[in-house]
Amino acid sequence: DAMGHCSTLAYDGAYNTGGRATTFHRMPGEPSLLLAGIEGSPRYNKGPHQYTEPEVEFRLLRMAPGLILNRVRKGRYLDIFVTHAPPRGIHDLEDIAHKGFQSFLPFLKYFRPTLMLHGHTHRYDPTQPTRTQHNDTLIINVYGHTRFDIRFSSEIRRWQLVTKPLAVGNP
Predict the structure, then answer these.
(1) Measured between alpha carbons, how far is residue 133 from residues 60, 65, 84, 113 in Å?
(2) Which of 117, 119, 165, 170 could serve as 146's disulfide partner, Cβ 3.0–4.6 Å?
């Protein structure tokens, strides 16, 4: 809308997880895809969808029981973690509005998603990185649009990136 808020009604196939872990089944007989995500950027002017670090930590903790249940049922916690802001120190900037969240780093280390997708920090300079490997997680800044293919590896029981993401509409 004009205020910059997204409605799931505006995007065909979009689904608001409300900060919960969600399982998507692609095709019958294929492994499910385990997704989780949270909204928001660092609080800088008390606007909507802005959070302090403790507020983000609390939102991540609320997801933990569902992710642990995934591990019991599916053998893995999470495949793709989707956020608005990046993790601190990876693709973020120094100004208060574009700093990443520190609490994402231990979350990624513990729950080990294959991919973390984030936006918020615009990359107009093609020399700036948009993909960073952090432990077991490939972090991708998907600002604008990014296409990629994934496949499930039964050998390692994880989804893997098949092709290098192609930026669409980005310089």
Answers:
(1) 21, 26, 18, 11
(2) 165
CA distances from 160 to 14, 33, 70, 148 (A): 22, 11, 18, 10
Write down the pTM of the prediction: 0.81
Amino acid symbol at 7:
S
What pLDDT, on a 0 to 100 scale, did the predictor assign at position 19? 56
Q: Which residues contact 78 (CB under 8 A, 6 or more apart)?
A: 21, 34, 35, 36, 67, 70, 111, 112, 113
Mean pLDDT calculated for residue range 100-105: 96
Instruction: Look at residues 145, 155, 157, 148 and name the one whose alpha carbon lies nearest to residue 115.
Output: 148
Confidence of residue 41 (pLDDT cuts 50, 70, 90): very high
Q: Write the DSSP assignment of the chain as a string of letters.
A: -TTS---GGGSTT----TT--EEE--STTSPPEEEEEE--EE-SSS-TTEE-HHHHHHHHHHHHHHHHHHHHHHSSS-SEEEESSPBTTSS--SSGGGPPBTTHHHHHHHH--SEEEE-SS---STTS-SEEEETTEEEEE-SS-EE--EEEETTTTEEEE-S--EESS--
